[in-house]
Amino acid sequence: MKWMKRLRLINWHYFYDETVEFGKQTLITGKNAAGKSTIIDALQVLFVADQRQIKFNAAAHDEAKRTMINYLRGKIGTDRQTFVRHGDFTTYIVAEFYDAHKREPFVVGAVIDVFGDQDFEPEYFILSGVRLEELEFVGPSGELLNREAFRRRYGGSGRNRAIFERNKSTYQRALLARMGQVHERFFRVFVKALSFQPIQDVRTFVYDHILDEQKLRLDLLKQNFEIYERYKQELAELERRRDKLLAVRERYQEYAKWRDIVLEQDYVIRRLKWERVREVLAGLEQELRRLDEKLEEAEGEIALAKAKQEEAREDAEAALQRWQTHEAERRKKELDAIIRERANSLAELRRRLSSAVDRLGRELELLGGLAGWSACDGWQWREGEREVLERVRESLAAVHGRLAREERVEGAVGAALAEAGERLADLYQRAVIAADRVAEQVREAEERIADLERVIRNLEQKKRPYPESVERLKAMLEARLGQRSPVWIFCEEMELKDEAWRDAVEGYLNTQRFDLLVEPRAFVEALSVYEWEKWAHRLEGVGLVDTDKERKYLGTAEPGSLAGELEAPHPVIRAHVEHLLGRVMKAADEQDLRRYRTAVTNTCMVYHNLVARQIPKRHYEVPYIGAKAIARQLEMRRRELEDLRARRERLAAARRELDRWAERLRDKPSLYAALAEQTALPAELDAVKGELEAAEREREALLASDLFGQVERLKREYEAWRQAEKEWGARYDQWVRRQAGLEADRRHIEEQAGRQRQAAQEAEAEFQAWRLEYGPEAENRALARWEDAVRQGLPLARKLENWENNRKGNETRRNQEWDALRELRRQYNMEYGFDGPVDSEDNGAYESLLHDIEHLNLPQYREKVEQSLRESEEEFKSHFVFKLREAIHLARREFDELNYALRHFPFSEDRYHFEVTPSERYKKFYDAVMDPLLLERGSLFDHLQEERVQALHELFETLVRGEAGDVEEFTDYRRYLDFDIVITSRDRRTRFSHVLREKSGGETQTPFYIAILASFYHLYRSGKTVRLVVFDEAFNKMDEQRIRSSLRLIKQMDLQLIAAVPDEKMQHMVSEVTTTLIVTKQDDRCFVDLIERGEEGAVVDPAAGVGAEEDVERELSSGRGNGGREEPVPLQETLF
């Protein structure tokens, strides 16, 4: 066995350097927050190592907030400081054990370097054959050895004698081995014992502390079942492929039947077409002969009509000559020509007269509108112009009235119209000039509007409009001076105090408002830039202030001067204000001016050098000084913009009006000259009327004379011959058209006959091609259908139509069968990766494949399927079922041993017993697996109607087909068992599962400790392991009897107890333990005192005076090592 003797803590929380001694049963007590749990947590760091598993101050449960870094630095949390330790330092937690079997000590420890940035690096070590007091932690300089130095000092003792490890997992494995090959469940049980949590579920406790998980491998079972499934699928796949290929064969046979029917019908149709074409050709040749006879008749009729028409034409021409050469007829034609010419002249004169009247009417309307037109921008009537226009309009109105009545116009009308034209021409010139002048005014207004809009945009962006020369020079200076000096515009850098004096200040300064200023140190350079650039950039007139010399004026302004009305925080600007306005005094009125050498009133009257002068308004009407100047400028510019826009609209309207009148007055002299000429039209009209009336009277007299009767007779004779000529011409045309129609018919029939001869050759060729392609055998089969066609008493055309319609239906059926066949082939190829020809006319490739499948040894495949199933079943039975049953048997044996121990270690009057029963949820599987007749069965799955065989079958299916979670559930042998703790007290038996629901306090705490002790006893089954059990805040809800019973049980189990207990429980425990330690805290420092040693002494080793192992065991029992007492450990000061 291995016993823990001592624990040394250096720089651990409030422990500076403290050595704690342990007996076989050790109690640690003290007031709250004295440091009891600090010792327990140090043991966690030492024995668990992995901070993911450690739970500091475990007895506080979920309220614990301690961390590793807080323990290392010693967190205080007071106002004066946060930690006991600061900067870089090293912490040691070292425990000494005694191995009674090997009769040697060994040390387990942790050395931790802590750094100022809150980081830390732990390293764990196990040193064999070394006592705690033999280790040196302090170097020659008097300071603690750091991690590297400690490892260099003790790490060279040999691989088996000294182990240093930074990897926590590797350290845990080494620690378990050094503790006597303890199971890794030690860490979980150790932490759970510290963090007391009553058992809420017995199964969870059993899983965590008693029964280990065992993985039952299913690889071979699944592999055999997969082979079975594969063979089964392959057999089913072969049968499916055979069925699909049989479907392809059946579909091909159906397709071939309809293909042959269509082929035979094609023979009949081709032969019928040939016969039909020959029949049509015979009819066309007969029609050609008939048309030839009709054409011969037409030629005779055409020749007769042509001769008669020519004879009538000659007689008509002779009659026409006699008629046209008669004297009366000739005079009639002359008179008709004169009448037409005079009528046309009369109509033209009236048209011109009407046009002149209309034009005069429009001119009257124009003159009336012009006389009533009032003046507009750019146009004013001159004196007497409107009266002259009115007289001209009256003259035109008189002319207009006479011309409208076709009356002659008397007097000097032409001169009056010419004068009117000249006057209107003068008005036209004036209108054009006025329109151009107004257009220029519109353009100027638009330019000014654009300038104002730009200025307003700049003002809205707080940019004042300055002369371009000012802005150019400012930009040049800013670019040259850069960060060395700002460039100021004078008016922007000051503010007016009283708006009443704005006009006076603005007007007095005038252009000086735009002076540019720079820092005094930059003036010389700025002046050079100005001089150099002034001509190239047209910078004349810009003021650049000598701020260097002007500094002397700062603070020189006289009280009451105009400078007092300006605020300028910057001294450079203020100096310029006082220089310019510091001696310009404010006068109350014009009379007050005379009191000063230089003064100004708020109405802008200036008095200087004995001269008074009013400042021009243009000098101050646009404000520039201060922030309010922008608002006032905006207001002024917006008002000006609004006025300008209204003026622009007014000017634009005037221009349109002037343009309209100029257009209407254009070319008036030429127009009025033409109107003057047209006043002679009524006289010309009267002359033409007289000539027309004379010609009409002469014609009427000629038509009434006897001489004209002879003319009428000659006319009728001519018309008769002309009628005969027309009739014979019509007859000629009729027969010519008939001849053309017959010739066209003949050409058409000839073309048809030619096509039919070609069609006959093609039909014969197609028929012969069929015979050549399919041969005599196919023709013999088709002749039967031909005989059927011959026997039908129908015309050839009807027969052909019937056979073609029937073939179309059969072709549709054939194509449907073909498409279905191709789809079956395509599906087969895609499903099985076969490259058979989908569009092949024969079915050879698929027939060959079907032949191969039909001749496979399918019974052999079925035997493979059955064999693989048997192998899967055998693996299920021999591996899984039997190993599951074996695991359950071993679990029961494990609990038998545990219960054996519990029977021999009764707890007071109570006895505890773990009850293991088949799980209610998995009972059917449990009964099937544990069935003793299982070995005698042949196949597990014979007689499926039996309940247990059905359960095995369900379990088998779950394992080979189930999801991962299901497989994990059913392969855990612990699932098949239910667990409970039976408490026997005298004659009463109680199940712990019932106690959980009904009771609390000590009655529920006791099973926890019993179960934990049983877990440790189970872990320490070997006699060569440690026996350590650690509790924090132990037995706090138990009564006196249960506490004593628990401590006696620990002794009976031969376990080494270390327990932190509350003060109030000490009186019930002291008599049952060997060692009592009291932890005290004073001024952020903890101490441990060994107050009392019980009857059984502390753990000793042979070096202390005992030479044999049995003597050591006696010493552990008697507590008399080293004379029965031990020197008290002196108080150790800090090592730093």
UniProtKB/TrEMBL annotation:
- Example GO BP: double-strand break repair
Region (Disordered) residue ranges read 1102-1136
Concerning InterPro entries, the annotation shows: P-loop_NTPase (IPR027417)
Q: Which residues form a coiled coil?
A: 221-326, 428-462, 627-766
List keywords of the entry alphabetically: Coiled coil
Enumerate the SUPFAM superfamilies for this protein.
P-loop containing nucleoside triphosphate hydrolases
PANTHER family linked to this entry: DNA REPLICATION AND REPAIR PROTEIN RECF
Q: What is this protein called?
A: ATPase
What organism is this sequence from? Kyrpidia spormannii
State the organism's lineage: Bacteria, Bacillati, Bacillota, Bacilli, Bacillales
